[in-house]
Predict the structure.
Amino acid sequence: MSRMVCSLAPGKVILLGEHFVVKGMPAIGAAVTLYARVCVSRGQGRVESRQLGLLLDLSSNTVNDKGLYRVVEELAGRFGLKRDFHATIDSEIPISSGMGSSAAVAVSTTHALLSFAGVEPDKKVVWEVSFEAEKVYHVRPSGVDNTLSTYGGVMVYERGVFNRVKTRWPDDVLIVIADSGVKRSTGSVVADVLNRYDKYSKVMSRIYDAASELVRDAIKSIETGDFARLGELMNINHGLLSSIGVSSRVLESIVWAMRDAGALGAKISGAGRGGIVIGLVETSKVPSVIEKIKSLGLAPLVVQIDDEGVRRAPDNRTSQG
Ligand code: MEV
């Protein structure tokens, strides 16, 4: 059987503090148990995605994913990666919904290509290389997506500095994700919020201070395992997000469906106006939350925190290659 190496890397959700983070307030993100898996074997410089088709074919200079091309160039320059690989990506992370799917793919591809080239995939290197891809995908990436995907866990970030929140997240507190299916551009939502900030700066600066206070309180709640308090803080955070103009009728209906079904807290996660809503839900309430979300015609995802970040994955091939 030809040699094949596989890696997987998690997606993420923002638990609290999105938007306010743009003006230097702290935010909390968490890696979650939805993965981009990449397997590499000997081939002719191709990268394919089960979801998106052909991304790179170096033999014919086809570059449909400039971020991954950047990863390959970086690995060639730093470690002498040759064009003798075939990478297959299979990701269960929803695309374009603020869950860091492109970062998880870049992290996992970097990890798998390094392993394939016989280089021990040091996390610092994986972080650096995947951040190069993030710079291709996003104008000014905060680094939160590839940081959480590389290292896992729950992290607080503020002005580009990341710190792990010490937590032993209990198995019976889950995160339910509902994708509204409404697509929007993060850039334009952020621009609208900043305009509102300028127009009502005295009022807005107090909302931003409240958001900062809220995140600091939430860090303590996570550290001490007070998830009822964390849920309430998420509800308050959602109110602040509504006040800066990023909620919508659809998002409110999802948030209230989760609360009605017994979630400890529910809020927009990410840029808002569309994208995803997250709920903090105890195991006993998960079935009713799922049912409520399904009744809105949406397909919920139930996840836990991924503490580990990127890692080797088993090669699940059943047939001989
Ligand atoms: C989008 O996922 C998160 C925002 O806070 C923007 C950003 O931090 O760059 C809205």
User: Anything to note?
Assistant: The pocket of (R)-mevalonate is lined by residues 14, 18-19, 21-22, 98, 142, 186, 190, 270-271 (CB under 6 Å). The mean pLDDT is 96. The chain is about 40% helix and 25% strand. The first strand starts at residue 4 and ends at 16.
